[in-house]
Amino acid sequence: MKRKVLLIYTGGTIGMEKDYETGSLRAFDFGSIFQKLPEMKLIECEVDVHPFKKPLDSSDMGPKEWKIIAKLIGKNYDLYDGFVILHGTDTMSYTASALSFMLKNLSKPVILTGSQLPIGDLRTDAKENLLTALYYASLYENDKALIQEVTIYFEYKLLRGNRTLKYSAEYFDAYQSPNYPALGQSGVHLNIEKDFLWRAKSDAPFTVDLHLSQDVLFWRIFPGMHLEHFSEIPQMKVLILQVFGSGTIFNTKKTLDILQLLRDRGTEIVVVSQCVSGGISFGKYSNSNIFTKIGAISGNDMTAESAITKAMHLLENPNYKGNFAENFAKNLCGEVTES
């Protein structure tokens, strides 16, 4: 049986070509992708292309565009066996994380990919990334998709989308998943680590939950920072603090007073680490006890991108029972390591 894959092109370097008159990059008509990449016709799956009307730089991608993609997948869910999203690299981890929360009870692959060089360049990474993403999106066993989650495929590695971060603007190997193993690697064969794959905990049918609140603020703590600025910011519903190491911050009464003031105003405070690897552990050092005192929420080993989009999705979402803190602490779709 020939599988069907929907290829969604949002924009990004992968869909660019050089304008030889000006020397700058411009988007090409992605409807002509089969001419640009004739190898796509050799893949044993049917590929339909749905390009955004106006290709977007990844820095222009946000909640509005995440909803467009989620709706598109929801509308076509029963018509296709898998989905590949072509996306600019700078914010791909945000989009992958957001979609992982919005697309509930997935039983089909949703794979994001892109490239560091345009598809027409001689040394481009675009062709391998796109072709292998299509292979992974059409990979079935006993009539069931092997991949049933939102992932990123880049430079021979298949990674869980809500565990990734972009760590290089220079190298083809641009993404890391520091706190979770790769789901697969491509070489001579396409390898899948079945034990690491996510499976929905519920037998409920696939649904799309478009709820996203933008009343979330992210702030990186740095030595010598004046926390008094927090009291001058208009009230926010969720403040995500990126702190030192396993969860430490300046151990002063002023720090406690400012953070307690925010909590008294009703602001939820989520704590994530500035370290790429590892996570938050309240109580490990005395300078983390302040967060326990004020009732802050541990982000554990989540990436900043995942914590931000998870907070946006959960905040005042009527589709969840319980309060924000209870729901944020749950492992919803493999975004956090369960203790």
TrEMBL record:
Record InterPro entries: Asp/glu_Ase-like_sf (IPR036152), Asparaginase/glutaminase-like (IPR006034), Asparaginase/glutaminase_AS1 (IPR020827), Asparaginase/glutaminase_AS2 (IPR027475), Asparaginase_C (IPR040919), L-asparaginase_C (IPR027473), L-asparaginase_I (IPR041725), L-asparaginase_N (IPR027474)
Domain L-asparaginase N-terminal: 4-194
PROSITE patterns: ASN_GLN_ASE_1 (PS00144), ASN_GLN_ASE_2 (PS00917), ASN_GLN_ASE_3 (PS51732)
One GO term of the biological process aspect: amino acid metabolic process
Signal peptide: none
GO molecular function terms noted in the UniProt entry: asparaginase activity
UniProt-annotated catalytic positions: 13 (o-isoaspartyl threonine intermediate), 13, 89
Asparaginase/glutaminase C-terminal domain: residues covered: 216-319
Binding site for substrate: 58, 89-90
Membership in a protein family: Belongs to the asparaginase 1 family.
UniProt name for this protein: Asparaginase
